[in-house]
Amino acid sequence: MGLEIERKYLVRGDAWRRGAEGVPFRQGYLSTVRERVVRVRTMGDRAVLTVKGANRGATRLEFEYAIPVADANELLDLCEQPLIEKTRYRIPHGGLVWEVDEFHGVNKGLIIAECELEAEDQAVATPEWVGDEVTGDPRYFNASLVARPFSTWS
Question: Which of 9, 29, 65, 89 is catalytic?
Answer without folding.
Answer: 29
